[in-house]
Structure formats: C-alpha cells, structure tokens
Design brief:
The chain contains 13 helices and 14 strands. By secondary structure, it is mostly helical. The protein has two domains: 249 residues, Alpha/alpha barrel (Glycosyltransferase), CATH 1.50.10; 128 residues, Glycosyltransferase. A three-stranded antiparallel sheet has the order 3-4-5. The chain has a three-stranded antiparallel sheet with strand order 12-13-14. The protein has a two-stranded antiparallel sheet with strand order 1-2.
Length: 385
C-alpha cells in the first residue's frame, strides 16, 4: 500500500488550479515576447529583465505539461511563445546562450553561465517532442554538444578565478547533466546517453562524495580531492537531495539497485545533517567542518531545497518502501505547506528567514521562475498517484 497516496490529489490540485494559472496569467510578455519572471506577491511585474535559464525552464515546463498531462493548446502556445523569443535573441554568434537580456531582447549579461545552455537544451528537446519541428531538435542537439565541449571549463573566458592557483570543479554541472541526458534520451539515443552518464554517475556518487562526513561537496579539485577552503568545505543539502532523485531515475533506467540504495543513504544523511533542529526546515548552505560559511544567506530556508527533497523522499519510498523516506516526506511536507504556500495569493514564497517567515514576498525574480514549484507538484503527484 502506498501510504503517501493520500497526498497525490493535493499536489495535483495545487499545480493545475493555482500554480499554472499564476504563470499563465502573469508571466507572458505579449508585447515583446518571452516571459516576465520578476513577479511580486500578487503577480504584478516589478522588473522586466529576462534571464535565459528561467526562459528555458518555463518553455520546458509548459512543453512537459503538454506532453505528459494533457494536450492543451494553451500550454503548447505558451511554450512556443517563450521559445520564439529565445530563438530570436537568446544566443551569441557561436551558439552560447546569454545569461540575461533586457525586455526587448538586447543582451545584458554575457554567456558566462552554462546553466542557460542546459535549460535551453532541456526546453527545445521537450518542445520538439510536442511539435516534431526539426529546428527545435537541432537547437537542442547543438546546445547539448556545446555543453559537453565546455564542461571542463564552463565559464571559459568569463572565468574570474586566476588560473592555476586553486582550480576547482563544481558539483552543479555533472548533477544537471544526469537529468538533462535522461530528458533528451529520445533525441540523443540510448548509446549517447550511456556514454554521457557513466562518468557523471561516478562524479556524483564518488568524486564529490566525502566518505568521512557522508556529505557531498559543492566543489572539489580537478582530480577529485578535498580543498580546505571556503568553496571546498561547502555543502548544499538542496543540491545533494535534488541530485539523488536524478540518481534514482538513472538507477531505475539501468536496473541498478545499488545505485538506488546509495542514493537513498546519501539523501537521508544529507537531510539529517541539513535539518534545522531548532526551527525546522533545511539550511541553504553548510560548512563540512562546521566553520562559518562565506554565504551570509546560509541559514535561509529556500523553496526549491524543500520541494526537491520532497521529490526525492517520495521517490525513495515509492521505489524501495524505505520507512525513513516516508517519515521525512511527511515532516518536510508539513513544513513546506505551512511556510512556503501563500495563504492569500497563488504561487509560493521562495525565501524564508531561519525562523520560517517570508524574507521577500516575491513569487518570481532572477533566480525563482516557473520551474521548481510546478515541476515538484507534477513529480510528487505522479510518484504518489
């Protein structure tokens, strides 16, 4: 018996009746194309800059809903609306995706951030599944091969670190590529995906994993060693927990039970270590040695950290029946719904202080868009159903 099944309807209704209508009603820029993501508590636009990674995430989200939930024309139209803006203005001459544009589509920030490219590839591959348009497929494939070329030095000429003194590689990219490869498997083919994910699984589960603390580092040296520095001691429980449901998906795909079991072990330990015993909720950043972090926001409670952890706990319980996953799901579900959900207006708060009160009442900005809340609602609904 799936004891968490009773929650499925709650996540489905929140997605379809509250969260999706919020973005449909408020984020579409009908004058210049693309989406507004800087939306206040009520959904009013407070800034018109457009961030490529959030544009890509929203294109992906509406394409995914169209492909997996219901063939609603308005969802496909919403995805195409964002995609045509991205296609027209989003890339530089060599096919790298800018970080941000102004409202009209003129570049503001150079393509230093490879996550713009990751979410563009994700967007156009999902859109291709909906449209069958070869141009969408081509953009996805070209962007993906560009990412693979750049993965050893993602920031390229925009890297501000002095070369050679303390080179570090970051956990975020291998983690995201695991998920991106799976999403793009229809287009890339199983062989390409196998070739891409094998070294990535090793990176996530061995290279960035610290046996001593049982936690995952955000940064390690190029040869996978610990760096006793601010960056090297950093762990981000949200990143760890999100990546563990990607690992479970790969474990299911590859029929690899030990990968799934290891992912659950890391997930449970990371959540235990990241949980605020005094106020509840999961910390944003921690220092593996317990030193002060350089991130002053380390003790904030963020929406995506909690939602991604819920997905992982639900998935872990669903696949293995692990009781600890079930118990953590219920604890985090309770915290998340009572703190992040706005009782008066649709969509969720993103940023709470340590005590769990909203720091900002925005519903979207430069970092929060139409992604973690709706994707989480969709995933949890489908896992628990």
């Amino acid at each position: 018996m799936n004891e968490l099944a009773k929650y499925a309807g709650q996540y489905r209704d929140e997605l379809l009746q509250s969260v999706i209508p919020f973005w449909m009603n408020h984020s579409k820029d009908t004058d210049f194309g693309g989406y507004f993501t800087c939306l206040n508590r009520k959904g009013e636009v407070y800034d018109t800059d457009k961030f490529m990674w959030l544009q890509g995430r929203e294109v992906w989200l509406f394409s995914m809903l169209y492909n997996k939930v219901e063939k609603k024309q308005e969802w496909l139209d919403m995805a195409l609306h964002g995609a045509s803006f991205m296609k027209k203005y989003g890339m530089d001459a060599t096919g790298n995706w800018y970080f941000s544009l102004n409202r009209e589509g003129k570049p503001l920030v150079q393509p230093y951030n490879i996550f713009s490219d990751c979410f563009a590839a994700m967007a156009f591959s999902e859109l291709y599944k909906a449209t069958g348009d070869e141009e969408h497929k081509q953009i996805a494939v070209n962007t993906f091969s560009n990412i693979l070329k750049r993965q050893d030095n993602p920031k390229g000429l925009y890297n501000k670190a002095f070369p050679g003194t303390r080179p570090l590689k970051s956990f975020a990219l291998p983690m995201i590529l695991c998920n991106l490869s799976l999403i793009m498997e229809d287009i890339l083919g199983a062989e390409q995906v196998n070739k891409t994910i094998q070294p990535l699984i090793k990176e996530v589960m061995e290279v960035f994993y610290d046996k001593k603390s049982g936690l995952i580092f955000e940064n390690v040296t190029p040869d996978g060693q610990f760096s006793d520095s601010f960056e090297g001691r950093l762990t981000n429980p949200g990143h760890t927990n999100e990546s563990m449901w990607f690992m479970m998906d790969l474990g299911v795909r590859n029929n690899d039970k030990s990968l799934i079991d290891n992912a659950i072990k890391i997930l449970l330990h990371s959540t235990e270590a990241g949980w605020d015993k005094k106020n509840g909720g999961i910390f944003y950043f921690l220092d593996i040695k317990g030193h002060p972090t350089q991130q002053l926001e380390w003790d904030q409670k963020l929406w995506w950290v909690h939602i991604e952890t819920l997905i992982s706990m639900a998935k872990g319980y669903r696949i293995t029946g692990n009781e600890a996953c079930k118990n953590w799901f219920e604890t985090i579900h309770e915290y998340t719904w009572s703190h992040f959900k706005d009782p008066e207006y649709p969509e969720w708060y993103g940023y709470l202080n340590r005590e769990g009160n909203p720091l900002l009442d925005l519903k979207g900005g430069k970092w929060k868009g139409c992604f973690h809340v709706p994707r989480g609602m969709y995933e949890i609904w489908k896992i628990l159903e």
